[in-house]
Amino acid sequence: MKIKQRAAFTVMELLVVITIISALATLAVPATSRILAKARAVHCMGNLKSIGAALHLYLGDHDNTFPTLVLSRESTSDGQPALETTLKEYTESAEVFHCTADDKQLFQKTGSSYLWNSLINGQNVASMDFMGFIKDGTRIPVVSDKENFHKYQGVEVNILYADGHVAKEVQFVVGGK
Questions:
Q1: Boundaries of domain holding 19
Q2: Considering the domain boundaries, does residue 91 fall inside one?
Q3: How far apart are CA 168 and CA 98, in angstroms?
Q4: Phi and psi dihedrals of 121, rounded to 5?
Q5: pLDDT tens, 65-122?
Q6: Residue 56 and residue 16: Cα distance in Å, rounded?
Q7: Helix/strand/coil percentages in the chain, nearest 5
Q8: Domain presence at residue 129
Q9: Would 25 be classed as within a structural domain?
């Protein structure tokens, strides 16, 4: 009489496979999180470049004079002139004001994930003066992230400068906090 043997996993083999899969998942999840965070930061930098292009179009229509805007609105119902309300007609979509890394829903609450530097309100591009000592457009911030959305590798804030370039910067502290 022949005994027929079934091909099957033993409990030990099954535990080894589960352990290997768990180890691979443990390695893959943090790497995936870093990749997604970096992709969000790059997307937000692209938004700032688009805002810079919209601002350039605005300047062309207004004798190279920056608009007079509030730093940020408290809510979308706030009627004060803000970055997203003034430059909206110069952009393809209001989504350009939405940083995908905005985990605090600031875009939904206020209409933008970005801050306007109100210290440059009403200034002409040709004679910019930032706080009385910086006149170089490569060093004058115009728009930045509202929060430190990009903490993944020490880069916390993306900034659009007056000359149109966007850079990743370590968050600076205002007011000694």
A1: 13-169
A2: yes
A3: 17
A4: -50, 130
A5: 999 999 989 898 888 999 999 999 999 999 999 999 888 999 999 999 999 999 999 9
A6: 60
A7: 45, 10, 45
A8: yes
A9: yes
Farthest-apart Cα atoms in the chain, separation: 101
Q: How many domains does the chain have?
A: 1
Tell me whether residue 132 is in a domain. Answer: yes
How much of the chain, in percent, has pLDDT values that exceed 90? Answer: 44
140 close to 130: Cβ distance less than 8 angstroms: yes
DSSP assignments along 35-93, one per residue: HHHHHHHHHHHHHHHHHHHHHHHHHHHTTTB-----S--SSTT--S--HHHHSGGGSS-
Per-residue pLDDT tens over the stretch 30-47? 777 788 888 888 899 999
In one-letter notation, the amino acid at residue 113 is S
d(CA 49, CA 161): 10
Q: What are phi and psi of 130, to 5 degrees?
A: -105, 110
pTM: 0.77
Residue in this structure with the two tokens 């920056």, named with its chain if needed: 66
Distances (CA, A) of 177 to 47, 172, 174: 28, 10, 7
Tell me if 82 sits within 8 A of 111, measured CB to CB.
yes
Closest by alpha carbon to 164, among 42, 81, 54, 61? 54
